[in-house]
Amino acid sequence: MEFSIVKFFVLAAWFFCGIALLDKMNSNPAKWNRGDTGGASREFLTLFFGPVFFLLSQQDSSFVNSLKNLFNRGKRTIKYRDITIIDSHGAPMYGTDCDNPAIDKLKDVIILAVAKRASDIFLDPAGERMQLRFRADGSLINIENFTADFGDNVVNAIKVAAGMDITEKRRPQDGSFAAECSGSSVAFRVATVGAFGGEKVAIRLLGSEVGPKTLEDIGFNPEQLHLLKNAVGLSSGMILMCGATGSGKTTTLYALINNIDFSLKNVISIEDPVERVIPHVSQMEVNAKADITFAKLLRNALRQNPDVICLGEIRDEETAQIAVHAAQTGHLIISTVHSNDSVDTLDRLSNLGIPFRSLAATLKVIVNQRLVRRLCEHCRQPLTEIPDRWKEYFSYCRFPADHIYAPCGCPECNGTGYKGRAACFDILVIDASLRAELEKENTSLSQIKTIAEARNAANSLTYHAAYLAASGVTSFEEIDRVTLALDGGIQ
Ligand SMILES: [Zn+2]
Questions:
Q1: CATH number among 3.40.50.2300, 3.40.30.10, 3.40.50.720, 3.30.450.90, domain 80-206
Q2: Is 73 in contact with 82 (CB distance < 8 Å)?
Q3: How far, in Å, is the centroid of ligand 1 from the Cα of 116?
Q4: Read out DSSP for 202-223?
Q5: Which residues pair with 335 in a beta bridge?
Q6: pTM > 0.70: yes or no
Q7: Domain 215-488 has CATH 3.40.50.300
Q8: Residue 216 neighbours by CB distance under 10 Å
Q9: What is the mean pLDDT of the segment spanning 451-455?
């Protein structure tokens, strides 16, 4: 029988298309098993309609890429079927054999969020649809829109995993779950609330940011590094980090803890929630539902005679009182306060019932920080001139103008023009002159502010932010944003 080379290639093409279709079915078994294919069996479809289906389904990707994937199965990127969800009690659920489109979608979203280095996942009702967005490097990215029904199913899958009541759609709920993939895991903190048109879901990815771990990596200058390393070596007192939500103060807190000599010191950390596991540190987690508060854990921790207590946040009177008392009695307290700047931190603590006199006796250092987005190095555009509003300041600081850039946008940075973030700081040391001012009977915040600003002028947050723009790390829009926030309250 004559077997021409043309016939051979036609058959070979038919065969490969069939295999590729089978591969596509395997990658999304839920769809094919649901009967969307009209009840025909997979094998039948593969053999007879394979090439047609396959070519039709290739509108969004090239045939060559598909074949590459087919022959590189081992090297392929992770698919949703490879991950397992771990519920809030640590039990595995939605395993790799699970077959439900909403759960598959949830796993897809998790993988994509991790791959895009997102810090948050948001699901918001928007009329007939549900909008899926990520926050990565501080900016929001639109990912996908679901139909309202499918969106509800995804939300329910999330709520079940996070141990929430799925029948409750209006009251705010909190929960958590984790996802595991080939031995490594990521934790998620979920908050839901009823909103106009449906239910809003916000998911925070915990400890997933490939963040800096040491003080050196964070971006302090040598003088600041020296100061902070001395501060964490103190045997008592209080070191505070301030800044708005998302200013990176928790990352700095972890870096500070990592600088403690664990062989000499007993360190206890109280967090809400535990975002990173630190070896050699006893980490306790606040649980509001079970009435385990910062204050209760702090009292409990003090009975264990620690040298250093790291407190996730001081946000209520009771915690503030115990923390200050502990700092006065031979413990080093490292904590964060949600406030706008160093002087605002003093005000905040005084509002929590701590007199300035007690602060004078305990407080050593206040670190105020902000994050700016880093310009994407693949697409940043050189600027020829400093914007007018910054000209005076740049010449005052003697910053050159030959390394300044503006954002552009490319596939590397998801079109945002920015990739990653950099921190800028000011560090206020409570030295003799400030201590004397705090101890005065009739001192006021404005007087303290005058003293602090006079001393910190060359070491201010504005200076550090402008320095980052002058060295091409960030843009002028970014430094506008953080320096305007200094005057305009917490953003
Ligand atoms: Zn770019």
A1: 3.30.450.90
A2: no
A3: 14
A4: EEEEES-S----SHHHHT--HH
A5: 240, 311
A6: no
A7: yes
A8: 13
A9: 81
